[in-house]
Automatic annotation (TrEMBL):
Keywords: Apoplast, Secreted. Gene3D superfamilies: Allene oxide cyclase-like. Dirigent proteins impart stereoselectivity on the phenoxy radical-coupling reaction, yielding optically active lignans from two molecules of coniferyl alcohol in the biosynthesis of lignans, flavonolignans, and alkaloids and thus plays a central role in plant secondary metabolism. InterPro entries: Allene_oxi_cyc_Dirigent (IPR044859), Dirigent (IPR004265). Belongs to the plant dirigent protein family. One of its GO terms (biological process) is phenylpropanoid biosynthetic process. It holds the Pfam family Dirigent. Homodimer. One of its GO terms (cellular component) is apoplast. It is found in: Secreted, Extracellular space, Apoplast. This is Dirigent protein.
């Protein structure tokens, strides 16, 4: 009856000791930041293309209080629909009053090019109807792993 308690206490003690030793002897924890070493900065200019849908297939636009906006768009290098496709923009936004500042309103930008492969997650928490939006980049995968920063969305002239 006492053996399971001894095993449990030993396991917990070893786990705590491991965490403490890793914190004390980790080279990352003791590294001094260099003046010249900064996180990599990446500035991309991309265009989200509207889908080309014939007028007889168009659905009515949802009102802001009627439900969710679900979209799937193409990302291109240039403003023209014929520009090189670099990825996809997908999102799910709840414009309902109680959810408009929700952490669930995310736009996913996925890339599949020779330079970049992965995705960026952009939080659409503070959407307004301005000409320019600055939204928070809250994560990424692949080439953009653990990305943080700002994503600026502006309407092309």
């Amino acid at each position: 009856m006492m053996l399971p308690r001894i095993i449990f206490c030993t396991a917990v003690s070893l786990a705590v000791l491991t965490v403490v030793l890793l914190a004390l002897f980790s080279p990352v924890a003791h590294r001094k930041p260099s003046k010249h070493h900064t996180r990599p900065w990446l500035a991309l200019s991309l265009y989200i293309q509207q889908p080309l849908i014939p007028t007889h297939h168009r659905r009515p636009v949802l009102q802001s209080d009627s439900g969710a906006f679900i979209f799937h768009r193409t990302l291109t290098k240039g403003p023209e629909n014929t520009s090189m496709v670099v990825g996809q923009a997908q999102g799910f936004i709840l414009p309902v009053k109680h959810f408009e500042h929700s952490a669930f309103n995310i736009i996913y930008l996925t890339f599949d090019t020779p330079e970049y492969s992965g995705s960026l997650s952009v939080q659409a928490k503070h959407l307004s109807h301005k000409d320019r939006q600055e939204l928070a980049v809250v994560g990424g995968t692949g080439s953009f792993a653990f990305a943080r920063g700002l994503a600026a969305f502006a309407e092309a002239a």
